[in-house]
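Run log, item B.
One chain of 314 residues. Sequence copied directly from the ordering sheet:
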Amino acid sequence: MSKRKLTIQLAGPRGFCAGVDRAIEIVERSLEKFGAPVYVRHEIVHNKFVVDELREKGAIFVEELDEVPEDAPVIFSAHGVPKSVPEAAQRRNMVHIDATCPLVTKVHVDAKRHRGEGRTVILIGHAGHPEVIGTLGQLPEGQILLVENVEQAETVEVPNPNNLSFVTQTTLSVDDTADIIAALEKRFPDIESPRKEDICYATTNRQAAVKALTPNCDAFVVLGAPNSSNSNRLAEVARAAGCPKSILIERASELDIAWLDGVDTVGVTAGASAPELLVQELISTLKDNFDVELKEINVTTEDVHFSLPRALSA
């Protein structure tokens, strides 16, 4: 029986970003240097496949520092942590290694600089996300105001409207964030913006790639974890760009082939913490069920690389 034709449009860039590559390498190098087990506070990146692989190599994932033995090394995740966490590690004389993405660290530095210059700081982001928790925790409680959407931007109360600044989570929707910033700037014309946009290059590039593919796709599949902010945003971007049949899945095994009934062209991408292996796994599954034509479409080339912490780079 012949297979039905299906065109796969593969988005590029997709998958791992420099911050994720660096965080994973930090765990692997730490295991080599210190031996197993090495403890990691929170998932190093939001991807079950990656976390499970590192766990098999000897990493132990915990939620809080008090779960880590005194004599064991601990790594802080790529999302960043409140300032209180490394301070607590120092008090206990623990070996601690910070895997925070340098682009998240930039947001932390900017927030502290703005506050140090006397401005009220607004953080645009999603409540409860580890990156937002880490950024809020760079300053004493209540010194950063969280704004999640346009409605909140239009109603947030600030002590001095003429002395304001904003920073953003790095993994937001570019378009949604632009709307929130516009609402803030309309209310507060003097609000100071970041010197360089906070939404990271990888988030921006992956969303641009999805937008470029969407007009030619009947459906869109995003590979990524359900708790991954940038992966969720990719599925949302596809829907907003005119492809309502868009889903986020972790593995190819979650895809119901019947979902592709009536679909001639499917777009495929992966969030910044999803390995390429999962993309190839999905393509193999589709080839098992369809006569596949594969088209890879790149909107830009990425050559970003972040150096390792000094403790591991020797």
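Observations after the first pass:
- The chain has a mean pLDDT of 96.
- The first strand starts at residue 5 and ends at 12.
Flagged for discussion on Thursday.
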